[in-house]
Structure formats: C-alpha cells, structure tokens
C-alpha cells in the first residue's frame, strides 16, 4: 500500500532567516534608513555643514613683510644729513635758484645771515642769472669748489652756465651755534668771486 502522507523536506531554512535577508540587502536597507533619518521633513537632501573658519592655506610660502614708507621726518633728516656733509654744493644750487628767479628770496630765510639776506633780497628781483638771450635753457651749476680756512668756516665758489656764458658765484658759509651752516656773504661775478675761484683750484665733484 502506497503512503499518502506528504514527504517532509530534508532541510528547512531556520526561523527568521527570510526576514533578515542576505548581507547586501541588509546593507542597502541600513543606508536607506540612515538617509531618511538625516532628511528633515519638507526639505531636500541634507546639506554639508557650512564652513565657519577661514579656508586652509595651501601655499607654503610666507607672505613678504610690508615695507613701511619713509615718513616726511625721515626724508627731511636724510636731506639734512646730505646738506651737512656737502653744504657748499647745497648752497650753490639754492643761490642759483634764487638769483635766476626760479624761487623767491624768502625760501632761504633761516639759511642766510641777516646782512647777506638783505643783500639777497636787493639783488634777487633783478634775477641776474636768468637767461635773456636766444639760449633760454635753464641755468646750471657746472662746478663747485671750496676751502676751509678755519674750523666752522667754508669759502666756496660755483661756476654757473647761463645764457650760453659762464659766471662765477662766491659765497661764505659759517657754522652757527645751532650746528647749522648759514650763508654769511655772497658775490656774483665780482673780484672776490674771481679770486675765490682761482684760489680754490680744480673744483671737486
């Protein structure tokens, strides 16, 4: 007689195995659940947190230090040092500017003693070194010479080219109590100017 009872399978999956699924399925489900939890209601996908600090500097070079601009006092001090080192050169140029009418006489106020300043204000309006002929090029100091007969005194001369001709300018500088050089006297194309020019010899540059 043939048995009608159903044959029992030789092996059945353990209880709950179908619910758990395979490893790839579990990993996909976990990623989907984490995405849903991170998404706020009514909003799109989660955004990356905004950067609150400055961006990282990838350039390894150090920035060069900013160079400070020289102040007016520093520039004035440098000019003063050059003037003290070669006072006869500075005074030759300044006297030329005044005697050629390029600057007024009062620009030398404080740099010229009283007697010499009175003479300068008398001569300067005539502008004796101003070009008057066909050649109107700017007057120029072409040579300066000086000697020091004693400490604190400089006797100097300057050769000036103006209007196509040369003129001689002699002047005397004295070191005053405030340690500043001042012009004590000057003469243009006079006997003293010619004498000082010959006595000083070759003009130092």
TrEMBL record:
Spans annotated as Disordered: 1-85
> What InterPro entries does the record point to?
DUF6459
The superkingdom of the source organism is: Bacteria
Which residue intervals are annotated with compositional bias (Basic and acidic residues) in the record? 25-39, 56-70
- Could you tell me where the Polar residues compositional bias lies? 1-10
Pfam families recorded? DUF6459 (PF20060)
Kindly provide the name given to this protein in its UniProt entry.
Rv3235 family protein
């Amino acid at each position: 007689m043939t048995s009608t009872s159903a044959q029992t399978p030789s092996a059945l999956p353990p209880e709950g195995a179908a619910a758990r699924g395979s490893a790839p399925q579990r990993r996909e489900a976990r990623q989907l659940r984490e995405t849903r939890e991170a998404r706020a209601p009514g909003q799109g996908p989660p955004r990356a947190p905004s950067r609150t600090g400055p961006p990282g500097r990838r350039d390894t070079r150090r920035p060069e230090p900013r160079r400070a601009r020289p102040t007016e006092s520093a520039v004035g001090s440098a000019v003063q040092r050059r003037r003290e080192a070669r006072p006869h050169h500075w005074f030759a140029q300044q006297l030329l500017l005044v005697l050629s009418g390029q600057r007024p006489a009062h620009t030398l106020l404080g740099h010229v003693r009283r007697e010499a300043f009175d003479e300068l204000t008398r001569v300067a309006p005539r502008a004796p070194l101003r070009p008057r002929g066909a050649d109107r090029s700017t007057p120029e100091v072409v040579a300066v010479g000086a000697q020091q007969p004693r400490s604190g005194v400089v006797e100097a001369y300057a050769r000036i080219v103006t209007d196509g001709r040369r003129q001689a300018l002699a002047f005397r500088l004295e070191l005053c109590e405030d340690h500043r050089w001042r012009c004590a006297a000057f003469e243009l194309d006079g006997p003293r100017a010619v004498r000082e020019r010959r006595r000083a010899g070759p003009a130092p540059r």
